[in-house]
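Fold these two proteins, one after the other.
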Amino acid sequence: MSARHFGDGMDLLATAVLLIDQDLRVQDANAAAESLIGSSRRSMVGVGLPLLLADMSALEGQLRTAIAAQRGFWDNDVEIARPHGEALHVSCLATPVELPGAVLLIELRQIEQQLRIERETLQLTQSQANRELIRNLAHEIKNPLGGLRGSAQLLEHELDRAELREYTQVIIKEADRLQVLLERLLTPNRRPKFDGVNIHEVVERVRSLVLAEFPQGIRVERDYDTSLPDVFGDREQLIQAVLNVTRNAAQALLGSVGTRWSEASGAPGCIVLRTRIAHNVTIARERHKLALDLQVIDNGPGVPDGILDRIFYPLVSGREGGTGLGLTLAQTYVQHHRGLIECKSHPGRTVFRFLLPISAPRMHEQP
Protein backbone atom coordinates (compact mmCIF):
# COMPACT_ATOMS: atom_id res chain seq x y z
CA MET A 1 0.00 0.00 0.00
CA SER A 2 1.38 3.40 -0.93
CA ALA A 3 1.16 6.30 1.48
CA ARG A 4 -0.85 8.35 -0.98
CA HIS A 5 -3.63 5.74 -1.15
CA PHE A 6 -3.61 4.87 2.50
CA GLY A 7 -6.59 7.14 3.39
CA ASP A 8 -9.02 5.38 1.04
CA GLY A 9 -8.99 2.26 3.18
CA MET A 10 -9.17 4.12 6.50
CA ASP A 11 -12.08 6.48 5.92
CA LEU A 12 -14.50 4.19 7.73
CA LEU A 13 -12.57 4.57 10.98
CA ALA A 14 -13.84 7.04 13.56
CA THR A 15 -10.25 7.58 14.75
CA ALA A 16 -8.22 10.31 13.04
CA VAL A 17 -5.24 8.69 11.29
CA LEU A 18 -2.33 10.46 9.57
CA LEU A 19 0.86 9.35 7.86
CA ILE A 20 3.84 11.67 8.27
CA ASP A 21 7.38 11.72 6.93
CA GLN A 22 10.59 12.33 8.86
CA ASP A 23 10.06 16.12 8.66
CA LEU A 24 6.52 15.83 10.13
CA ARG A 25 4.95 16.57 6.74
CA VAL A 26 1.57 14.90 6.21
CA GLN A 27 1.63 12.27 3.48
CA ASP A 28 -1.96 11.13 3.82
CA ALA A 29 -4.95 11.37 6.15
CA ASN A 30 -8.34 9.78 6.54
CA ALA A 31 -11.75 11.48 6.71
CA ALA A 32 -11.76 11.51 10.52
CA ALA A 33 -8.46 13.42 10.49
CA GLU A 34 -9.99 15.97 8.11
CA SER A 35 -12.83 16.48 10.56
CA LEU A 36 -10.58 16.65 13.64
CA ILE A 37 -8.08 19.12 12.19
CA GLY A 38 -10.61 21.07 10.15
CA SER A 39 -8.76 20.84 6.81
CA SER A 40 -9.24 18.76 3.69
CA ARG A 41 -6.91 15.89 2.85
CA ARG A 42 -5.71 17.68 -0.27
CA SER A 43 -4.77 20.83 1.64
CA MET A 44 -2.96 18.82 4.35
CA VAL A 45 -0.77 16.61 2.16
CA GLY A 46 2.77 17.96 1.98
CA VAL A 47 2.26 20.43 4.83
CA GLY A 48 4.09 20.15 8.13
CA LEU A 49 1.86 19.06 11.00
CA PRO A 50 3.01 22.01 13.20
CA LEU A 51 1.60 24.35 10.53
CA LEU A 52 -1.79 22.61 10.56
CA LEU A 53 -2.23 22.80 14.33
CA ALA A 54 -2.03 26.08 16.23
CA ASP A 55 -0.44 24.54 19.31
CA MET A 56 1.27 21.14 19.37
CA SER A 57 4.61 21.96 20.96
CA ALA A 58 4.47 19.04 23.41
CA LEU A 59 3.34 16.57 20.75
CA GLU A 60 5.95 17.78 18.25
CA GLY A 61 8.77 16.87 20.61
CA GLN A 62 7.34 13.38 21.15
CA LEU A 63 6.95 12.81 17.40
CA ARG A 64 10.51 13.90 16.58
CA THR A 65 11.89 11.67 19.33
CA ALA A 66 9.86 8.71 18.06
CA ILE A 67 11.10 9.23 14.48
CA ALA A 68 14.74 9.54 15.56
CA ALA A 69 14.53 6.42 17.75
CA GLN A 70 12.30 4.52 15.26
CA ARG A 71 9.89 3.56 17.97
CA GLY A 72 6.27 4.29 18.79
CA PHE A 73 4.60 5.82 21.82
CA TRP A 74 1.20 6.30 23.38
CA ASP A 75 0.03 9.37 25.30
CA ASN A 76 -3.43 9.32 26.83
CA ASP A 77 -3.85 13.10 27.16
CA VAL A 78 -2.30 15.50 24.66
CA GLU A 79 -3.55 19.04 24.16
CA ILE A 80 -3.54 20.42 20.62
CA ALA A 81 -5.36 23.30 18.97
CA ARG A 82 -7.10 23.69 15.64
CA PRO A 83 -5.99 26.53 13.32
CA HIS A 84 -8.74 28.84 14.60
CA GLY A 85 -7.58 28.30 18.18
CA GLU A 86 -10.04 25.74 19.59
CA ALA A 87 -8.22 23.55 22.11
CA LEU A 88 -8.67 19.79 21.89
CA HIS A 89 -7.71 16.97 24.24
CA VAL A 90 -6.72 13.81 22.37
CA SER A 91 -5.04 10.50 22.99
CA CYS A 92 -2.17 9.83 20.57
CA LEU A 93 -0.80 6.47 19.39
CA ALA A 94 2.25 6.68 17.12
CA THR A 95 3.52 3.61 15.26
CA PRO A 96 6.60 3.35 12.99
CA VAL A 97 5.76 2.25 9.42
CA GLU A 98 7.73 1.37 6.29
CA LEU A 99 5.82 3.00 3.47
CA PRO A 100 7.17 5.05 0.55
CA GLY A 101 7.67 8.57 1.89
CA ALA A 102 6.18 7.87 5.35
CA VAL A 103 7.84 6.84 8.60
CA LEU A 104 5.15 7.24 11.26
CA LEU A 105 1.45 6.50 11.54
CA ILE A 106 -0.42 8.66 14.06
CA GLU A 107 -3.82 7.86 15.54
CA LEU A 108 -5.59 10.73 17.33
CA ARG A 109 -8.71 10.01 19.34
CA GLN A 110 -10.58 12.97 20.80
CA ILE A 111 -11.18 12.49 24.53
CA GLU A 112 -13.10 15.74 25.02
CA GLN A 113 -16.34 13.76 24.75
CA GLN A 114 -15.25 11.44 27.56
CA LEU A 115 -14.22 14.39 29.73
CA ARG A 116 -17.54 16.09 29.01
CA ILE A 117 -19.52 12.99 30.00
CA GLU A 118 -17.61 12.82 33.28
CA ARG A 119 -18.30 16.53 33.91
CA GLU A 120 -21.97 16.10 33.04
CA THR A 121 -22.37 13.13 35.39
CA LEU A 122 -20.78 15.05 38.26
CA GLN A 123 -22.76 18.19 37.40
CA LEU A 124 -26.06 16.30 37.31
CA THR A 125 -25.41 14.57 40.63
CA GLN A 126 -24.44 17.85 42.29
CA SER A 127 -27.39 19.67 40.75
CA GLN A 128 -29.89 17.12 42.04
CA ALA A 129 -28.38 17.28 45.53
CA ASN A 130 -28.40 21.09 45.43
CA ARG A 131 -32.05 21.26 44.34
CA GLU A 132 -33.12 18.89 47.10
CA LEU A 133 -31.20 20.91 49.69
CA ILE A 134 -32.69 24.19 48.41
CA ARG A 135 -36.24 22.83 48.40
CA ASN A 136 -35.95 21.60 51.96
CA LEU A 137 -34.33 24.82 53.13
CA ALA A 138 -36.91 27.01 51.37
CA HIS A 139 -39.83 25.12 52.89
CA GLU A 140 -38.28 25.32 56.36
CA ILE A 141 -37.85 29.10 56.03
CA LYS A 142 -41.27 29.95 54.54
CA ASN A 143 -43.38 29.25 57.61
CA PRO A 144 -41.38 31.23 60.22
CA LEU A 145 -40.93 34.00 57.66
CA GLY A 146 -44.69 34.33 57.30
CA GLY A 147 -45.00 34.45 61.09
CA LEU A 148 -42.42 37.23 61.32
CA ARG A 149 -44.22 39.31 58.69
CA GLY A 150 -47.60 38.82 60.32
CA SER A 151 -46.24 39.75 63.73
CA ALA A 152 -44.67 42.91 62.31
CA GLN A 153 -48.04 43.91 60.80
CA LEU A 154 -49.84 43.36 64.12
CA LEU A 155 -47.16 45.32 65.97
CA GLU A 156 -47.46 48.19 63.50
CA HIS A 157 -51.14 48.62 64.36
CA GLU A 158 -50.26 48.95 68.05
CA LEU A 159 -47.66 51.68 67.53
CA ASP A 160 -48.71 55.32 67.69
CA ARG A 161 -45.45 56.95 66.59
CA ALA A 162 -44.60 57.14 62.89
CA GLU A 163 -40.86 56.81 63.49
CA LEU A 164 -41.45 53.47 65.23
CA ARG A 165 -43.65 52.22 62.40
CA GLU A 166 -40.70 52.76 60.07
CA TYR A 167 -38.96 49.86 61.79
CA THR A 168 -41.89 47.51 61.27
CA GLN A 169 -41.96 48.55 57.61
CA VAL A 170 -38.35 47.52 57.32
CA ILE A 171 -39.22 44.09 58.72
CA ILE A 172 -42.20 43.71 56.37
CA LYS A 173 -40.26 44.79 53.27
CA GLU A 174 -37.30 42.53 54.05
CA ALA A 175 -39.68 39.62 54.70
CA ASP A 176 -41.29 40.27 51.30
CA ARG A 177 -37.87 40.36 49.64
CA LEU A 178 -36.96 37.02 51.22
CA GLN A 179 -40.31 35.62 50.12
CA VAL A 180 -39.52 36.52 46.51
CA LEU A 181 -36.12 34.88 46.87
CA LEU A 182 -37.73 31.69 48.17
CA GLU A 183 -40.19 31.66 45.28
CA ARG A 184 -37.27 31.86 42.87
CA LEU A 185 -35.68 28.90 44.61
CA LEU A 186 -38.84 26.82 44.25
CA THR A 187 -39.87 27.97 40.74
CA PRO A 188 -37.65 25.50 38.80
CA ASN A 189 -39.86 22.63 39.97
CA ARG A 190 -42.48 23.68 37.40
CA ARG A 191 -42.48 21.16 34.56
CA PRO A 192 -41.67 22.73 31.20
CA LYS A 193 -44.36 23.10 28.54
CA PHE A 194 -42.75 21.79 25.37
CA ASP A 195 -43.45 23.20 21.94
CA GLY A 196 -41.53 24.23 18.84
CA VAL A 197 -39.43 27.30 19.67
CA ASN A 198 -37.53 29.57 17.31
CA ILE A 199 -34.30 30.04 19.23
CA HIS A 200 -33.60 33.38 17.55
CA GLU A 201 -36.88 34.79 18.89
CA VAL A 202 -35.66 33.72 22.34
CA VAL A 203 -32.23 35.30 21.86
CA GLU A 204 -33.67 38.51 20.40
CA ARG A 205 -35.98 38.82 23.40
CA VAL A 206 -32.99 38.43 25.73
CA ARG A 207 -31.01 40.97 23.72
CA SER A 208 -33.77 43.59 23.95
CA LEU A 209 -34.16 43.04 27.71
CA VAL A 210 -30.44 43.37 28.38
CA LEU A 211 -30.11 46.51 26.24
CA ALA A 212 -33.07 48.05 28.08
CA GLU A 213 -31.59 47.19 31.48
CA PHE A 214 -28.05 48.29 30.59
CA PRO A 215 -28.52 51.12 28.06
CA GLN A 216 -25.03 52.56 28.42
CA GLY A 217 -21.58 51.17 27.70
CA ILE A 218 -22.36 47.65 26.42
CA ARG A 219 -22.71 46.30 22.89
CA VAL A 220 -24.74 43.15 22.33
CA GLU A 221 -23.83 41.70 18.95
CA ARG A 222 -25.57 38.98 16.94
CA ASP A 223 -23.83 36.05 15.24
CA TYR A 224 -26.70 33.81 14.13
CA ASP A 225 -27.01 30.77 11.92
CA THR A 226 -30.42 31.64 10.52
CA SER A 227 -30.85 28.16 9.00
CA LEU A 228 -31.34 26.55 12.42
CA PRO A 229 -34.57 24.56 12.87
CA ASP A 230 -36.88 25.09 15.82
CA VAL A 231 -35.92 23.66 19.19
CA PHE A 232 -38.47 21.58 21.09
CA GLY A 233 -38.70 23.32 24.44
CA ASP A 234 -40.34 25.71 26.88
CA ARG A 235 -40.01 29.25 25.50
CA GLU A 236 -40.22 31.04 28.86
CA GLN A 237 -37.69 28.77 30.54
CA LEU A 238 -35.27 29.15 27.64
CA ILE A 239 -35.63 32.94 27.75
CA GLN A 240 -34.95 32.96 31.49
CA ALA A 241 -31.93 30.66 31.20
CA VAL A 242 -30.26 32.70 28.45
CA LEU A 243 -31.24 35.98 30.16
CA ASN A 244 -29.63 34.95 33.46
CA VAL A 245 -26.34 34.18 31.73
CA THR A 246 -26.39 37.30 29.54
CA ARG A 247 -27.31 39.55 32.45
CA ASN A 248 -24.39 38.11 34.42
CA ALA A 249 -22.10 38.99 31.52
CA ALA A 250 -23.42 42.55 31.42
CA GLN A 251 -22.95 42.97 35.16
CA ALA A 252 -19.38 41.68 34.88
CA LEU A 253 -18.65 44.17 32.10
CA LEU A 254 -19.98 47.07 34.14
CA GLY A 255 -18.12 45.98 37.25
CA SER A 256 -19.45 44.92 40.60
CA VAL A 257 -18.57 48.18 42.31
CA GLY A 258 -19.24 50.66 39.53
CA THR A 259 -15.86 50.55 37.75
CA ARG A 260 -16.40 49.54 34.15
CA TRP A 261 -14.24 46.62 33.05
CA SER A 262 -14.10 48.16 29.57
CA GLU A 263 -12.50 51.32 30.99
CA ALA A 264 -9.98 49.35 33.02
CA SER A 265 -9.06 47.03 30.12
CA GLY A 266 -9.15 49.62 27.36
CA ALA A 267 -11.63 47.54 25.31
CA PRO A 268 -15.32 48.40 24.84
CA GLY A 269 -17.67 46.05 26.69
CA CYS A 270 -19.15 43.56 24.24
CA ILE A 271 -21.42 40.53 24.46
CA VAL A 272 -21.82 38.23 21.45
CA LEU A 273 -24.86 35.96 21.13
CA ARG A 274 -23.88 33.15 18.74
CA THR A 275 -25.97 30.26 17.39
CA ARG A 276 -24.68 27.25 15.49
CA ILE A 277 -25.68 23.69 14.73
CA ALA A 278 -23.70 20.85 16.34
CA HIS A 279 -23.58 17.40 14.74
CA ASN A 280 -23.42 14.03 16.47
CA VAL A 281 -23.29 15.36 20.01
CA THR A 282 -23.45 13.23 23.15
CA ILE A 283 -25.33 14.87 26.03
CA ALA A 284 -25.96 12.99 29.26
CA ARG A 285 -24.83 9.75 27.59
CA GLU A 286 -27.43 10.17 24.82
CA ARG A 287 -26.34 10.62 21.21
CA HIS A 288 -28.05 13.34 19.18
CA LYS A 289 -27.61 13.80 15.44
CA LEU A 290 -28.34 17.52 15.72
CA ALA A 291 -28.10 19.91 18.65
CA LEU A 292 -28.32 23.64 19.15
CA ASP A 293 -25.00 25.24 20.09
CA LEU A 294 -25.80 28.61 21.68
CA GLN A 295 -22.94 30.67 23.09
CA VAL A 296 -22.94 33.82 25.20
CA ILE A 297 -19.48 35.36 24.85
CA ASP A 298 -18.19 38.44 26.64
CA ASN A 299 -14.85 40.24 26.82
CA GLY A 300 -15.12 40.97 30.53
CA PRO A 301 -12.80 40.18 33.44
CA GLY A 302 -13.66 36.47 33.48
CA VAL A 303 -14.93 34.19 36.23
CA PRO A 304 -12.61 34.12 39.28
CA ASP A 305 -10.52 30.94 39.30
CA GLY A 306 -11.62 30.15 42.82
CA ILE A 307 -15.27 29.68 41.84
CA LEU A 308 -15.08 28.56 38.20
CA ASP A 309 -15.62 24.89 39.12
CA ARG A 310 -18.54 25.86 41.38
CA ILE A 311 -20.12 28.56 39.22
CA PHE A 312 -23.43 26.69 38.90
CA TYR A 313 -23.72 25.97 42.62
CA PRO A 314 -26.44 27.87 44.48
CA LEU A 315 -25.34 30.90 46.51
CA VAL A 316 -21.93 30.99 44.75
CA SER A 317 -21.33 34.37 43.13
CA GLY A 318 -18.32 36.30 41.89
CA ARG A 319 -20.18 39.59 42.20
CA GLU A 320 -20.54 41.61 45.38
CA GLY A 321 -24.17 41.51 46.43
CA GLY A 322 -25.02 38.67 44.04
CA THR A 323 -27.37 35.90 45.19
CA GLY A 324 -25.67 33.17 43.19
CA LEU A 325 -29.03 31.85 41.97
CA GLY A 326 -29.13 33.02 38.35
CA LEU A 327 -26.77 30.39 36.96
CA THR A 328 -28.23 27.67 39.18
CA LEU A 329 -31.67 28.36 37.73
CA ALA A 330 -30.26 28.51 34.19
CA GLN A 331 -28.65 25.10 34.68
CA THR A 332 -31.90 23.65 36.01
CA TYR A 333 -33.91 24.94 33.04
CA VAL A 334 -31.35 23.57 30.58
CA GLN A 335 -31.44 20.17 32.28
CA HIS A 336 -35.23 20.20 31.93
CA HIS A 337 -34.54 20.25 28.18
CA ARG A 338 -32.07 17.32 28.35
CA GLY A 339 -29.33 19.83 27.60
CA LEU A 340 -25.98 20.96 28.93
CA ILE A 341 -24.55 24.32 29.95
CA GLU A 342 -20.83 24.79 30.52
CA CYS A 343 -18.42 27.66 31.05
CA LYS A 344 -14.88 28.40 29.91
CA SER A 345 -13.33 31.62 31.11
CA HIS A 346 -10.18 33.68 31.30
CA PRO A 347 -9.69 37.46 31.55
CA GLY A 348 -10.92 39.05 28.36
CA ARG A 349 -13.04 36.11 27.18
CA THR A 350 -15.80 34.15 28.91
CA VAL A 351 -17.95 31.66 27.01
CA PHE A 352 -21.13 30.11 28.36
CA ARG A 353 -22.20 27.35 26.00
CA PHE A 354 -25.69 25.85 25.82
CA LEU A 355 -26.09 22.49 24.05
CA LEU A 356 -29.74 21.55 23.48
CA PRO A 357 -31.10 18.61 21.44
CA ILE A 358 -33.01 19.72 18.35
CA SER A 359 -35.31 16.69 18.26
CA ALA A 360 -38.32 16.23 20.54
CA PRO A 361 -37.95 13.66 23.35
CA ARG A 362 -40.03 10.52 23.25
CA MET A 363 -43.10 10.81 25.45
CA HIS A 364 -41.72 8.67 28.28
CA GLU A 365 -38.49 10.70 28.24
CA GLN A 366 -40.04 14.11 28.83
CA PRO A 367 -38.76 15.61 32.11
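Now the second one:
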Amino acid sequence: MYQILEHKTIGQNIHKMVIKAPLIAREAKPGQFVVIRSYENGERIPITICEKDPQMGSITLYIQEVGKSTAKIGLLKKGDHILDIAGPLGNPAEIKKVGTVVTIGGGVGCAITYPETRAYKEAGNYLIGIMGFRNVSFKILEDEMKKVCDELYITTDDGSYGQKGFVSDKLKEIISSGEKIDEVLVIGPAIMMKVISDITREYKIKTIASLNSIMVDGTGMCGACRVEVGGKTKFACVDGPEFDAHEVNFSLLMKRASMYSEEERLSYEKFKNER
Protein backbone atom coordinates (compact mmCIF):
# COMPACT_ATOMS: atom_id res chain seq x y z
CA MET A 1 0.00 0.00 0.00
CA TYR A 2 1.14 3.53 -0.78
CA GLN A 3 0.72 6.31 1.77
CA ILE A 4 -0.57 9.74 0.79
CA LEU A 5 1.93 12.29 2.13
CA GLU A 6 0.06 15.36 0.90
CA HIS A 7 -3.37 16.01 -0.54
CA LYS A 8 -4.53 19.40 -1.80
CA THR A 9 -7.64 20.14 -3.79
CA ILE A 10 -6.65 22.66 -6.42
CA GLY A 11 -8.91 23.86 -9.15
CA GLN A 12 -12.38 22.41 -9.64
CA ASN A 13 -12.39 18.74 -8.60
CA ILE A 14 -8.65 18.45 -9.23
CA HIS A 15 -6.51 16.82 -6.56
CA LYS A 16 -2.77 17.13 -6.12
CA MET A 17 -1.45 14.08 -4.29
CA VAL A 18 2.09 13.41 -3.14
CA ILE A 19 2.42 9.67 -2.58
CA LYS A 20 5.16 7.57 -1.00
CA ALA A 21 6.50 5.33 -3.78
CA PRO A 22 10.31 5.17 -3.51
CA LEU A 23 10.99 2.61 -6.23
CA ILE A 24 8.84 4.47 -8.75
CA ALA A 25 10.37 7.82 -7.75
CA ARG A 26 13.83 6.41 -8.36
CA GLU A 27 13.11 5.14 -11.88
CA ALA A 28 10.43 7.44 -13.36
CA LYS A 29 11.22 9.68 -16.33
CA PRO A 30 9.20 12.47 -18.00
CA GLY A 31 6.28 11.10 -20.00
CA GLN A 32 5.84 7.92 -17.99
CA PHE A 33 2.76 7.03 -15.98
CA VAL A 34 1.45 4.80 -13.21
CA VAL A 35 -1.72 2.75 -12.96
CA ILE A 36 -3.44 3.18 -9.60
CA ARG A 37 -6.23 1.32 -7.85
CA SER A 38 -7.51 2.87 -4.67
CA TYR A 39 -9.67 0.04 -3.34
CA GLU A 40 -10.23 -3.67 -3.91
CA ASN A 41 -12.94 -3.42 -6.57
CA GLY A 42 -11.77 -0.09 -7.92
CA GLU A 43 -11.07 0.79 -11.51
CA ARG A 44 -7.43 0.75 -12.65
CA ILE A 45 -6.64 4.34 -13.62
CA PRO A 46 -3.59 5.52 -15.61
CA ILE A 47 -2.12 8.79 -14.31
CA THR A 48 1.02 10.44 -15.64
CA ILE A 49 3.71 11.26 -13.08
CA CYS A 50 3.94 15.04 -12.77
CA GLU A 51 6.87 15.26 -10.36
CA LYS A 52 9.14 12.94 -8.43
CA ASP A 53 11.42 13.32 -5.44
CA PRO A 54 13.87 10.40 -5.24
CA GLN A 55 15.29 11.62 -1.92
CA MET A 56 11.86 11.76 -0.30
CA GLY A 57 10.80 8.69 -2.26
CA SER A 58 7.63 10.33 -3.50
CA ILE A 59 5.73 10.98 -6.72
CA THR A 60 3.20 13.75 -7.39
CA LEU A 61 -0.01 13.04 -9.28
CA TYR A 62 -2.79 15.37 -10.41
CA ILE A 63 -6.13 13.54 -10.43
CA GLN A 64 -9.36 15.03 -11.75
CA GLU A 65 -12.72 13.68 -10.61
CA VAL A 66 -14.50 12.48 -13.74
CA GLY A 67 -16.19 9.32 -12.46
CA LYS A 68 -16.81 7.09 -9.45
CA SER A 69 -13.28 5.75 -9.06
CA THR A 70 -11.57 9.14 -9.28
CA ALA A 71 -14.21 10.65 -6.97
CA LYS A 72 -13.42 7.98 -4.37
CA ILE A 73 -9.72 8.81 -4.67
CA GLY A 74 -10.64 12.44 -4.06
CA LEU A 75 -12.14 11.47 -0.69
CA LEU A 76 -8.82 10.11 0.57
CA LYS A 77 -6.91 12.22 3.07
CA LYS A 78 -3.28 12.73 4.06
CA GLY A 79 -2.16 9.58 5.85
CA ASP A 80 -4.56 7.33 3.93
CA HIS A 81 -3.26 4.73 1.50
CA ILE A 82 -3.66 3.87 -2.17
CA LEU A 83 -4.07 0.10 -2.51
CA ASP A 84 -2.01 -0.45 -5.68
CA ILE A 85 0.35 1.64 -7.81
CA ALA A 86 2.09 -0.01 -10.77
CA GLY A 87 4.85 1.81 -12.59
CA PRO A 88 6.63 3.56 -14.02
CA LEU A 89 4.93 2.45 -17.23
CA GLY A 90 5.14 3.53 -20.84
CA ASN A 91 8.11 4.87 -22.75
CA PRO A 92 9.87 8.01 -21.53
CA ALA A 93 9.47 11.08 -23.70
CA GLU A 94 12.18 11.49 -26.35
CA ILE A 95 13.54 14.91 -25.47
CA LYS A 96 16.56 16.56 -27.04
CA LYS A 97 17.74 19.98 -28.11
CA VAL A 98 15.86 20.96 -31.26
CA GLY A 99 15.51 24.75 -30.98
CA THR A 100 12.14 26.33 -30.23
CA VAL A 101 9.54 24.06 -28.69
CA VAL A 102 5.89 24.84 -28.04
CA THR A 103 4.26 22.71 -25.34
CA ILE A 104 0.47 22.80 -25.23
CA GLY A 105 -1.58 21.45 -22.34
CA GLY A 106 -5.34 21.27 -22.04
CA GLY A 107 -6.89 21.07 -18.57
CA VAL A 108 -5.35 18.41 -16.36
CA GLY A 109 -3.16 17.51 -19.34
CA CYS A 110 -0.97 20.39 -18.15
CA ALA A 111 0.23 18.04 -15.39
CA ILE A 112 1.82 16.00 -18.18
CA THR A 113 3.22 18.86 -20.24
CA TYR A 114 4.88 20.43 -17.18
CA PRO A 115 7.59 17.79 -16.51
CA GLU A 116 8.30 17.52 -20.23
CA THR A 117 8.49 21.30 -20.61
CA ARG A 118 11.03 21.33 -17.79
CA ALA A 119 13.01 18.56 -19.48
CA TYR A 120 12.97 20.37 -22.84
CA LYS A 121 14.29 23.48 -21.08
CA GLU A 122 17.04 21.52 -19.34
CA ALA A 123 18.03 20.17 -22.76
CA GLY A 124 18.72 23.72 -23.93
CA ASN A 125 15.57 24.57 -25.91
CA TYR A 126 13.63 27.84 -26.09
CA LEU A 127 10.23 27.09 -24.54
CA ILE A 128 6.86 28.57 -25.38
CA GLY A 129 4.10 27.21 -23.17
CA ILE A 130 0.38 27.38 -23.91
CA MET A 131 -2.07 26.26 -21.22
CA GLY A 132 -5.79 26.02 -21.88
CA PHE A 133 -8.60 25.68 -19.34
CA ARG A 134 -12.40 25.67 -19.42
CA ASN A 135 -12.38 28.56 -16.95
CA VAL A 136 -10.20 29.95 -14.16
CA SER A 137 -11.47 27.41 -11.61
CA PHE A 138 -9.68 24.63 -13.53
CA LYS A 139 -6.31 26.42 -13.72
CA ILE A 140 -3.30 24.49 -12.40
CA LEU A 141 0.52 24.70 -12.46
CA GLU A 142 0.80 28.28 -13.73
CA ASP A 143 3.63 29.21 -11.34
CA GLU A 144 5.54 26.02 -12.09
CA MET A 145 5.28 26.57 -15.85
CA LYS A 146 6.41 30.19 -15.55
CA LYS A 147 9.71 28.96 -14.09
CA VAL A 148 10.52 26.73 -17.06
CA CYS A 149 9.05 28.68 -20.00
CA ASP A 150 10.62 31.58 -21.87
CA GLU A 151 7.09 32.59 -22.87
CA LEU A 152 3.85 31.42 -21.27
CA TYR A 153 0.30 31.99 -22.48
CA ILE A 154 -2.94 30.93 -20.81
CA THR A 155 -6.31 30.68 -22.50
CA THR A 156 -9.76 30.05 -21.05
CA ASP A 157 -12.88 29.16 -22.99
CA ASP A 158 -14.92 31.86 -21.23
CA GLY A 159 -12.23 34.52 -20.86
CA SER A 160 -12.25 34.34 -17.04
CA TYR A 161 -8.43 34.27 -17.04
CA GLY A 162 -5.78 35.01 -19.61
CA GLN A 163 -6.84 35.17 -23.24
CA LYS A 164 -10.38 34.19 -24.19
CA GLY A 165 -10.42 31.35 -26.68
CA PHE A 166 -8.65 28.07 -27.27
CA VAL A 167 -5.04 26.93 -27.28
CA SER A 168 -5.33 26.50 -31.04
CA ASP A 169 -6.09 30.22 -31.40
CA LYS A 170 -2.89 31.10 -29.56
CA LEU A 171 -0.83 28.66 -31.60
CA LYS A 172 -2.13 30.22 -34.82
CA GLU A 173 -1.14 33.66 -33.51
CA ILE A 174 2.39 32.49 -32.74
CA ILE A 175 2.78 30.87 -36.16
CA SER A 176 1.37 33.97 -37.90
CA SER A 177 3.88 36.17 -36.07
CA GLY A 178 6.67 34.44 -37.98
CA GLU A 179 8.08 32.56 -34.99
CA LYS A 180 10.04 29.53 -36.19
CA ILE A 181 8.79 26.49 -34.31
CA ASP A 182 10.85 23.32 -34.43
CA GLU A 183 8.60 21.01 -32.41
CA VAL A 184 5.20 20.95 -30.74
CA LEU A 185 4.08 18.77 -27.83
CA VAL A 186 0.33 18.63 -27.25
CA ILE A 187 -1.45 16.82 -24.42
CA GLY A 188 -5.11 17.06 -23.47
CA PRO A 189 -8.56 16.12 -24.77
CA ALA A 190 -8.42 14.16 -28.03
CA ILE A 191 -10.36 16.78 -29.98
CA MET A 192 -7.87 19.46 -28.88
CA MET A 193 -4.92 17.33 -29.95
CA LYS A 194 -6.59 16.69 -33.31
CA VAL A 195 -7.13 20.40 -33.96
CA ILE A 196 -3.54 21.22 -33.04
CA SER A 197 -2.14 18.44 -35.22
CA ASP A 198 -4.26 19.64 -38.16
CA ILE A 199 -2.75 23.12 -37.78
CA THR A 200 0.85 21.95 -37.47
CA ARG A 201 0.50 19.50 -40.35
CA GLU A 202 -0.19 22.41 -42.67
CA TYR A 203 3.09 24.05 -41.61
CA LYS A 204 5.05 20.79 -41.47
CA ILE A 205 5.92 21.24 -37.79
CA LYS A 206 6.85 18.03 -35.99
CA THR A 207 4.14 17.36 -33.40
CA ILE A 208 4.01 14.83 -30.58
CA ALA A 209 0.79 13.81 -28.80
CA SER A 210 0.37 11.78 -25.62
CA LEU A 211 -2.66 9.53 -26.09
CA ASN A 212 -5.21 9.08 -23.34
CA SER A 213 -6.89 5.92 -24.59
CA ILE A 214 -8.86 3.53 -22.37
CA MET A 215 -6.38 1.41 -20.45
CA VAL A 216 -6.66 -1.57 -18.11
CA ASP A 217 -3.43 -3.38 -17.22
CA GLY A 218 -0.93 -0.92 -18.71
CA THR A 219 1.50 -3.65 -19.79
CA GLY A 220 0.26 -4.53 -23.29
CA MET A 221 -1.56 -7.72 -22.29
CA CYS A 222 -5.22 -6.67 -22.45
CA GLY A 223 -5.23 -4.69 -25.70
CA ALA A 224 -7.79 -2.18 -24.40
CA CYS A 225 -5.59 0.81 -25.17
CA ARG A 226 -5.09 0.03 -28.84
CA VAL A 227 -4.86 3.03 -31.12
CA GLU A 228 -4.24 3.47 -34.83
CA VAL A 229 -1.00 5.23 -35.74
CA GLY A 230 0.23 5.41 -39.31
CA GLY A 231 -2.44 2.91 -40.33
CA LYS A 232 -1.15 0.31 -37.87
CA THR A 233 -2.49 -0.85 -34.52
CA LYS A 234 -0.40 0.26 -31.56
CA PHE A 235 -0.81 -0.12 -27.81
CA ALA A 236 -0.64 3.24 -26.03
CA CYS A 237 0.76 1.64 -22.87
CA VAL A 238 3.83 -0.08 -24.34
CA ASP A 239 4.30 1.56 -27.75
CA GLY A 240 3.53 5.02 -26.36
CA PRO A 241 1.96 6.89 -24.76
CA GLU A 242 3.54 9.45 -27.12
CA PHE A 243 3.24 9.25 -30.89
CA ASP A 244 3.65 11.36 -34.01
CA ALA A 245 0.41 13.34 -33.87
CA HIS A 246 0.22 13.57 -37.66
CA GLU A 247 -0.11 9.79 -37.88
CA VAL A 248 -2.74 9.30 -35.16
CA ASN A 249 -6.30 8.40 -36.13
CA PHE A 250 -7.96 10.80 -33.69
CA SER A 251 -11.46 10.01 -34.94
CA LEU A 252 -11.04 6.38 -33.92
CA LEU A 253 -9.40 7.41 -30.65
CA MET A 254 -12.39 9.61 -29.74
CA LYS A 255 -14.87 6.90 -30.75
CA ARG A 256 -13.18 4.28 -28.57
CA ALA A 257 -12.85 6.71 -25.65
CA SER A 258 -16.62 7.16 -25.56
CA MET A 259 -17.46 3.43 -25.62
CA TYR A 260 -18.46 3.28 -21.96
CA SER A 261 -19.48 6.89 -21.41
CA GLU A 262 -23.09 6.07 -20.54
CA GLU A 263 -22.11 3.36 -18.04
CA GLU A 264 -19.55 5.71 -16.51
CA ARG A 265 -22.14 8.48 -16.21
CA LEU A 266 -24.69 6.23 -14.53
CA SER A 267 -22.11 4.84 -12.08
CA TYR A 268 -20.94 8.33 -11.17
CA GLU A 269 -24.50 9.63 -10.69
CA LYS A 270 -25.37 6.67 -8.47
CA PHE A 271 -22.26 7.25 -6.37
CA LYS A 272 -23.03 10.95 -5.93
CA ASN A 273 -26.61 10.20 -4.96
CA GLU A 274 -25.48 7.64 -2.39
CA ARG A 275 -23.09 10.19 -0.88
